[in-house]
Amino acid sequence: MDKLEQTILEINTFVRKDLWQDFKVSAFEYGSLKIVGGIDLSSNHTIEITFIATSFMEINYTWMTDTSKDMLMLASDEENLYLNAKYQIEEGYTLFKIIPEYFEEQEDFGFFVAAKDISFKTEKVYYFPSKSDTDL
């Protein structure tokens, strides 16, 4: 298993720990796409996934994920061929596939991101200060 496959495995393993996970696009800066996920995105997230040197994306702003299944994978050979022919994705980029929940009626549906690399961090990030932080 190479580094990329190991990273995808670690992301999927972390996401599967929760009963559900919601995701959203957090930022697209300097060519990197950041998505965050967690149980309650109105107050915090527990995982941040960064697609480094992103050249292409076909993705919703928010979505839910079925945590009983893998949510992130490498695109299939057919998907690579189809999207490369349609969008001329440059050589050297990896095509990632994100599987959102509630799109089962659309066979093989997914969001796609072409990037040079992927990284992630798992820490609970609160969007608002806690009560104890404001009482200082």
Question: Would you write up a description of this structure?
Answer:
- With 136 residues, the chain is of the alpha+beta class.
- It contains three helices and nine strands, in the order H-E-E-E-E-E-E-H-E-E-E-H.
- The chain has a seven-stranded antiparallel sheet, with helices on one face. It has a two-stranded antiparallel ribbon with strand order 3-9.
- It is globular, with a radius of gyration of 16 Å.
Task: Label this structure with key terms.
136 residues, alpha+beta, seven-stranded antiparallel beta sheet, 21% helix
Oligomer: single chain
Share in helix:
10-25%
Main sheet specs? 7 strands, antiparallel
Stretches where pLDDT is under 50 for at least 5 consecutive residues are none
Strand order in space, largest sheet: 5-1-2-4-8-7-6
**Helical element count?**
3
Number of domains: 1
Secondary-structure element sequence? HEEEEEEHEEEH
Structural class: alpha+beta
Mean pLDDT: 92
Rg calculated over all Cα atoms = 16 Å
**Shape category:** globular
Number of strands: 9
Distance between the termini: 48 Å
Summarize this entry quickly:
This protein has one domain. Helices cover 21% and strands 40% of the residues. The protein has helices at 3-15, 77-87, 131-134; strands at 21-29, 32-38, 44-45, 47-58, 62-65, 72-74, 94-98, 111-121, 125-126.
Secondary-structure topology with pairs:
Blueprint (H helix, E strand, L loop, with lengths): L2 H13 L5 E9 L2 E7 L5 E2 L1 E12 L3 E4 L6 E3 L2 H11 L6 E5 L12 E11 L3 E2 L4 H4 L2
Antiparallel strand pairs: 1-2, 1-5, 2-4, 3-9, 4-8, 6-7, 7-8
